[in-house]
Amino acid sequence: MTTRIVELRQGILKKNDELARSLRAQFEASGVLVLNLVSSPGTGKTEFLQRTLRELINSGAKAAALVGDLETDNDARRLAASGAPVRQINTHGICHLEAEMIAKHLDGWKLAELDYLFIENVGNLVCPSSYDLGEKIRVALLSVTEGEDKPLKYPTLYNSADVAVITKIDIAQAVGFDRDAALRNIAEIRPGVRIFETSAKTGAGMAEWLAYLAQQRSAK
Amino acid sequence: MHELSIVSSIVDSVTETLAAYPGARVKEVRLRVGALASVIEDSLQFCYEIATRDTPLDGSALVVKVLPVRMHCDKCAEDVEIASLQSFRCPRCGEPLTDMRQGRELEIDSIEIDQVEENV
Ligand SMILES: Nc1nc2c(ncn2[C@@H]2O[C@H](COP(=O)(O)OP(=O)(O)OP(=O)(O)O)[C@@H](O)[C@H]2O)c(=O)[nH]1
Ligand SMILES: [Mg+2]
Ligand SMILES: [Zn+2]
């Protein structure tokens, strides 16, 4: 009997990473800007995205969305009200989206005809951060109702953000939202990240967000 | 919780590797996991026991080496370890840090196997 060590030095999510890389190349070649929206359940991803899609489409841009949930197509139906093409991904128990699910659900869409593709991830503050979907921009959302210290509690997610969005600021006062603490905590976890303060209900902050999107798209 | 799907990938990779070592028994699987990789070791261990049953990994130990978050500090011109995951600042000069050099790894480092010697 001999004991030996076999070196593997292998990424455990290698399959996902490789597929995400090839998706990213495909997105770049098609000229579509892809964003992955992550947050806890109920932060307001769908509401924020619906308004974003509607305003983009009104301004003549072409935008589409994929939305991940464990079950139901409720969010897809809400998003489709914006007029954008939308597809629901049901993960049936899996708490995050994976690159393979994205690849499967792009079938038949002409990426080159799109300006923006949004991916609403499953509401979860832990698992989605490990899975690259090939996006260019990862958007981490935080609502005024869920506590200013969320970024400190879930640094793995907020540290991976390219941009942060605070949602539901229309009710900030009613829930005693401490804006300075929230901004400080986000900056502590992700120094220098751009932060948008928005309300999907009133439209506050949406103009800045849309200007950012347009600028990111033309910067490609 | 995505630890179960992570453990399944580990079982697949190790089983593939074992093809080159017929009859070998796995004693240990060693992982390198960054402190920001968003997996919980207890959940990994729990899932490992279940997912390795009736596989060539049955009965093996999962050894998880946690890698601290290391960032590059421009001011200090070197890589530093952050003091906590609640503050991405240089522990020496206080500078906010964005350039991560280590901390999101999720890798199988190596496996330890027992091989029956072949009679020549
Ligand atoms: N007042 C206020 N409520 C909002 C706003 N955005 C979302 N909501 C409400 O918050 C709740 C959750 O919003 P969703 O958009 O479904 O949240 P989500 O992040 O998509 O949730 P999951 O997909 O389940 O993770 C709903 O009742 C929304 O009406 C906002 O800007 N202001
Ligand atoms: Mg939703
Ligand atoms: Zn320093």
Key attributes of the depicted protein:
heterodimer; A: 220 residues; alpha/beta; 35% helix; B: alpha+beta; 3-stranded mixed β-sheet; 3-stranded antiparallel β-sheet; 2 helices; 6 strands; 32% strand; binds guanosine-5'-triphosphate; binds magnesium ion; binds zinc ion
Radius of gyration of chain B: 18 Å
CATH architecture of chain A: 3-Layer(aba) Sandwich
CATH superfamily of chain A: P-loop containing nucleotide triphosphate hydrolases
Strand content of chain A: 15-25%
Structural domains of chain A: how many = 1
The most extensive interface, with participating residues per chain, is:
A-B, 33 and 36 residues
Count every helix of chain B, treating DSSP H or I runs of 4 or more residues as helices.
2
Strand order of the largest sheet of chain B: 2-1-6
Write up what this structure looks like.
The complex is a heterodimer of chains A (220) and B (120). In chain A, 35% of the residues lie in helices and 22% in strands. Chain A has 220 residues and is α/β, with parallel strands linked by helices. Chain A has a single domain, classed as 3-Layer(aba) Sandwich (Rossmann fold), CATH 3.40.50. In chain A, strands 4-3-5-2-6-7-8 form a 7-stranded parallel sheet, with helices on both faces. In chain A, α2 runs parallel beside α3 (74-80). The longest helix of chain A is centred in the N-terminal third of the chain and has 17 residues, at 14-30. The radius of gyration of chain A is 18 Å and the shape is globular. Chain B is of the alpha+beta class and 120 residues long. Chain B folds into 2 domains: 1-68 and 103-120, 2-Layer Sandwich (hypothetical protein PF0899 fold), CATH 3.30.2320; 69-101, no CATH class. Chain B contains 2 helices and 6 strands, in the order αβαβββββ. Chain B has helices at 3-18, 41-52, and strands spanning 25-34, 61-67, 70-73, 78-81, 99-102, 106-115. A 3-stranded mixed sheet of chain B has the order 2-1-6, covered by helices on one side. Chain B has a 3-stranded antiparallel sheet with strand order 4-3-5, with no helix packed on it. The chains are: A alpha/beta (220), B alpha+beta (120). The A-B interface holds A 1-15, 94-96, 126-127, 129-130, 152, 155-157, 159, 187-192 and B 1-2, 5-6, 9-10, 13-14, 17, 21, 27, 31, 36-39, 85-89, 96-98, 106-117. β1 (2-11) of chain A pairs antiparallel with β6 (106-115) of chain B. The complex binds guanosine-5'-triphosphate (GTP), magnesium ion and zinc ion. Magnesium ion is lined by residues 45-46, 75, 120 of chain A.
